[in-house]
Write a structure and sequence with these properties.
Blueprint (H helix, E strand, L loop, with lengths): L2 E4 L9 E7 L6 E2 L4 E6 L4 E5 L4 E6 L6 E3 L3 E6 L45 H10 L17 H5 L31 H16 L2 E9 L1 H13 L8 H15 L5 E3 L4 E3 L5 E3 L1 E3 L2 E3 L2 E2 L7 H17 L2 E2 H5 L3 E5 L18 E15 L2 E15 L5 H16 L7
Parallel strand pairs: 5-16, 12-17, 17-18
Antiparallel strand pairs: 1-8, 2-4, 2-7, 3-6, 4-5, 6-8, 9-19, 10-11, 12-15, 13-14, 18-19
Helix pairs in contact: 5-6, 5-8
C-alpha cells in the first residue's frame, strides 16, 4: 500500500523544513534507507532517507517551498500501485536562488555554473540570498571551484552608479558614528527562541568540579602515538566516553522530563556542540555506551566534517539524549551552558591548563580542567548532580576504564 512521506522533525526545535533538492523523480524506484532528498532546516541541510522501499509515486512538496513538520511531501507506492489523489502541490518558490535575474549581472561577477547550468552555492548561501533578495548570479564565489559561500553573500555589495561630481564641502566637525542594524539569520533566530524557552521552562542549576587531567592526557598521548593520524583522540572524545560511562550509573541524566514521569533512554546518544560559520548546532554520536574510545573519536570527526559540509542525517539531530559543550580550544577556563531541550543536563568543558596545585602538602604543577554541569531541577537535585559529576571526575582521573 502507498506510504505517505511527511516533513520530518529533525531536532526538538524544528517547526518547518524546505526540500532543497529531490534525488529521485516521480516513477523511479526507491530503496529503503536511500537518500531521496536534501532538506534544509533553520540550522543546516540534512540528507533525508526513505523509510520504506517502492516507487516514488508523487512529489508533493516542490523544491524551495517551506513545509511545516508533519505535512505531506511525497508518496511512495508499491510497484504497479495507483497513486492516491492528494491536494495540489504548492507552486515552486518565486525567483529561486538558481534562476537568472531579470536584470543583467555585472561584468565583474564570475560565479561558476555546475554541469547542468546551476550556479554552485552552499545551501546556507542560497537561503541567505533568498532572504536578502540577492541574485546569486551576481555574486562571485570564493569557495572551491568558485562555489558561493555564506560569507560571499554576506559581503556582497550591489554595483552602484558613479556619483555625480560635487563641490568640495567646507570642512565640518566629524559626525558621530551612525547606528547600524544587523539582520538575524534564521539559525540565529532559532537559537534565540530555543535558549529562551529552555531558560524559561527548565529551572537550571549548576555544579562545577576541578578535574586533574594529568593521567587522562598521558593516556591520550599514548593512544595517539599508536593510532592512525585520521583517528587521533581529542580531549572532547575523552569527555564523551567518560560521560557515557557515568550515565550508565546515573540514568536520570540520560532522560527527558515528561510532566508526570521521566522518559529514561537506554541508548546514550551524546550531542556535541559544533560552532559553524552561521551559528551553533548540536548533532550527536549515537550509542556511545557500546563504542570504544577510538570509535567515538572516528565518529566525532565524521560528524564534524559532515556538519560543515551540510550532510548530516535526520537521526543525528533528533535522537540526542545528553550533550557536551567544549570551549577549551578557545582558552576559556570555565563557563555555564544552557540545557538543550528536552535534555536533562549539559556538561560545559573548559580548557586543560597547567597550574599550581597542592599534593600531600607540597606545591606541584598539575594539569587541571574545570567542568560545569547544568541540570534541570525538575529531573534531579543538587546532590544527584554532584554525584554524577564526581563520577565523570573519577573516570578521568583514573582513565584506564576509558579503554575497557
Amino acid at each position: 500500500m502507498a506510504t505517505n512521506v511527511v516533513m520530518p522533525q529533525m531536532g526538538y526545535d524544528m517547526r518547518e523544513g524546505t526540500v532543497v533538492r529531490w534525488y529521485k523523480q516521480e516513477g523511479e524506484t526507491v530503496d529503503r534507507g536511500e537518500v531521496i532528498a536534501d532538506i534544509e532546516t533553520d540550522k543546516a541541510t540534512v540528507e533525508f532517507e526513505a523509510y520504506t522501499g517502492g516507487v516514488l509515486g508523487r512529489i508533493v512538496a516542490a523544491a524551495g517551498i517551506a513545509v511545516p513538520v508533519g505535512e505531506l511531501i511525497a508518496i511512495i507506492t508499491e510497484p504497479g500501485e495507483a497513486v492516491p489523489e492528494v491536494a495540489a502541490a504548492p507552486a515552486a518558490a518565486p525567483a529561486p536562488a538558481a534562476a537568472p535575474s531579470p536584470e543583467p549581472a555585472p561584468a565583474t561577477a564570475a560565479p561558476a555554473p555546475s554541469a547542468d547550468g546551476e550556479v554552485r552555492a552552499s545551501p546556507i548561501a542560497r537561503r541567505l540570498a533568498r532572504e536578502r533578495g540577492i541574485d546569486l548570479a551576481s555574486v562571485t564565489g570564493t569557495g572551491p571551484n568558485g562555489r558561493i559561500t555564506e560569507r560571499d553573500v554576506e559581503n556582497y555589495q550591489p554595483p552602484a552608479a558613479a556619483p555625480a561630481p560635487a563641490p568640495t564641502p567646507a570642512a565640518e566637525p566629524a559626525a558621530a558614528p551612525a547606528d547600524s542594524r544587523i539582520e538575524l539569520s534564521r539559525m540565529r533566530q532559532t537559537i534565540a527562541r530555543v535558549t529562551s524557552d529552555s531558560k524559561t521552562t527548565a529551572p537550571h542549576f549548576y555544579v562545577t568540579a576541578e578535574i586533574d587531567m594529568g593521567k587522562a592526557m598521558q593516556l591520550r598521548r599514548d593512544v595517539n602515538d599508536e593510532a592512525d593520524p585520521e583517528n587521533r583522540v581529542s580531549v572532547n572524545d575523552l569527555m564523551v566516553k567518560a560521560c557515557a560511562l557515568a550515565l550508565a550509573n546515573h540514568p536520570k541524566f540520560n532522560s527527558f522530563f515528561r510532566g508526570d514521569h521521566l522518559e529514561v533512554h537506554g541508548a546514550m546518544n551524546i550531542g556535541i556542540a559544533i560552532a559553524l560559520e552561521s551559528g551553533l548546532i548540536l548533532p550527536g554520536v549515537s550509542n556511545c555506551e557500546s563504542k570504544s574510545l577510538l570509535q567515538i573519536a572516528a565518529a566525532t570527526k565524521d560528524l564534524i566534517s559532515r556538519a560543515n559540509s551540510g550532510t548530516l542525517r535526520n537521526e543525528e539531530y533528533s535522537s540526542t539524549t545528553f550533550s557536551i559543550s567544549n570551549m577549551g580550544m578557545f582558552d576559556v577556563e570555565s563557563f555555564t551552558a544552557i540545557i538543550y531541550p528536552p535534555h536533562a543536563a549539559i556538561l560545559a568543558v573548559g580548557s586543560v591548563k597547567e597550574q599550581p596545585v597542592v599534593r600531600d602538602g607540597q606545591l606541584a604543577v598539575g594539569t587541571m580542567m574545570k567542568a560545569t554541569l547544568s541540570t534541570d531541577h525538575r529531573v534531579a537535585d543538587g546532590a544527584e548532580a554532584a554525584q554524577f559529576l564526581m563520577e565523570i571526575k573519577r573516570v578521568l582521573e583514573n582513565p584506564v576504564s576509558l579503554l575497557l
